[in-house]
Design goal:
It comes from Caballeronia sordidicola. It is built from nine helices and eight strands. By secondary structure, the chain is an alpha/beta fold.
């Protein structure tokens, strides 16, 4: 039985999942003024404002966030390289982000040239293409031959794949991971557990077990909000317990999902809440969760120096 005392993590943090957007300069269809698309958080109107590195650094000021990973923000899909160029310029001028998950629709005709183009950018480590709703047979794009052909090209370009899909699609994701063992599959938002009912958590936990058997799968613990409910440590305790039991801290990494999760409170509240959630883990596991796994997976560049702390 573990005898570790509960201690709040006080070391360096790499935020493995965040976004920036300048709504006046660039086009994100879902963030247009008169648009509301179906979203698992419900009405997201309050995040339709510019969010840039200066805003993020202000919001994170109470914590030692030394770097971050930008995740594609559903920029207009006719210009995916434009988003990458824009984000690369942000990084060059502000020091954030320090790695990037780029947009790449894997079933497009030009996918080979697009992946080559994305891989040429120094920041890009991974790509994302949400596989969408299942068809009548219960399958998503993850089972589509053309999409999988695109997926098969990732390894040769040295790219990972970031998967955002609800937990009911994780069995399909496990097959994908097994079929392409040379590609690291990064599960976004903890596999989107949804509500916290016992039935949902049991189904989600079972789905995670199959994924955990694939050594080329890691999980981002991000986006754990629930529509119409406040974010709380209590609601997420069973989620963190299951993730650590199933994957272990070396395959888990913290992500803020800011500014989207601003719908539930401040970044300070969110990071502080996660520090509470893992406070019973051994110090080495806390460091893996907040720093080590993301450093290994995303190889962020240009990190700021961690704050100097007294030895204890």
């Amino acid at each position: 039985m573990s005898t570790h005392l509960h201690t709040l993590y006080d070391g360096p943090i790499i935020d493995a999942h965040q976004h920036f957007w300048d709504l006046g300069a660039n086009h994100y269809p879902w963030l247009a003024p008169d648009t509301l698309v179906p979203h698992r958080y419900g009405d997201y109107s309050r995040i339709k404002h510019d969010y840039l590195p200066a805003d993020y650094l202000r919001d994170a000021a109470g914590h030692d966030v030394i770097g971050s990973v930008y995740v594609e923000a559903e920029w207009t899909p006719d210009d995916p390289l434009g988003e990458t160029a824009y984000v690369s310029q942000l990084a060059a001028t502000t020091g954030r982000p320090n790695a990037m998950v780029a947009q790449a629709w894997l079933d497009h005709d030009n996918i080979q040239s697009l992946l080559a183009g994305q891989a040429r950018f120094a920041l890009v480590r991974s790509v994302r293409h949400k596989p969408g709703d299942p068809d009548a047979s219960g399958r998503t794009l993850m089972s589509n031959t053309r999409w999988r052909d695109g997926y098969s090209q990732l390894a040769r370009h040295g790219l990972h794949f970031d998967l955002q899909a609800p937990w009911r699609q994780l069995a399909e994701a496990a097959r994908l991971a097994g079929d392409f063992p040379d590609t690291l599959l990064i599960v976004n938002h903890a596999g989107v557990p949804g509500d916290r009912s016992s039935a949902t958590l049991a189904g989600w936990s079972s789905a995670l077990e199959a994924l955990a058997n694939c050594p080329n799968v890691v999980v981002k613990v991000s986006g754990l909000g629930q529509a119409g409910k406040p974010w709380s440590v209590e609601a997420n305790e069973p989620v963190l317990h299951t993730l650590n039991r199933t994957f272990g801290a070396d395959r888990l990494m913290f992500g803020s999902n800011f500014p989207v999760d601003e719908l539930f409170g401040s970044l300070d509240m969110l990071i502080g809440g996660f520090k509470q959630l893992v406070s019973g883990w051994p110090p080495s596991e806390q460091r893996a969760f907040f720093h080590g796994t993301a450093a290994r997976v995303y190889r962020p560049s240009g990190l700021t120096e961690p704050k100097t702390r007294n030895a204890s």
